[in-house]
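Input record (Table S2, row 176):
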Amino acid sequence: MPRPYQPSLLRLLHGLTAVLVSLAWLSGLVVYSNDDGRWGRLPLQVGGDWIDIHGTIGVLLWPLAILFALYAISVGRRHLRQPANLIALLALALAVGSGKLMEEDWLKDGQLDHVVYSVHLLAWLVMAGAVLTHVSAVLQRGGMPLLRSMVNLQVRANDLPRDWPGQIRRALTRRG
Ligand code: HEM
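Output record (protoporphyrin IX containing FE complex):
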């Protein structure tokens, strides 16, 4: 079987998204523990303005998530037939969408009963489940070679940034 290869534009968008999602997830956990804590708290108090840190990560994540989603539904649409890929993308949309509707002052003022905040909390849980499902589906389908293909830094000579516009054009004119 040939070694799996992922296009460089996909690896760039997917990699940056995965890093920012992880940072948003972890900083979200600290925000929950510091400013909510209804279902328990982390065993240690982490100092700092974590609402601000989490918000800044969110501001970086949402334009990137839009670019990645546009790529996934156009150039990568065949891969969205894999349910676990689609689930990861939908979880991203739920987390980023509900995060955009959050207001910074709600948690600072102790307002924990906003529906949008409940949806955003749920999105945090859904995201964890979706990424675990996604990564285990990747491992089941193609094992470590497929997993590694997404984090590999090697780029083929015909897959450089100058080739990206052509790749997008061909994908948009392709059927199915
Ligand atoms: C953190 C949030 C993540 C999201 C939202 C996400 C989303 C997606 C989506 C939508 C695709 C299909 C892309 C396309 O072909 O256009 C994909 C593919 C893939 N992802 Fe992720 N992903 C995430 C994390 C990860 C992680 C942590 C790994 C592990 C290294 C991973 C490994 C892969 C692999 C190997 C593929 C290619 C699978 C295939 O060919 O169908 N992903 N991901």
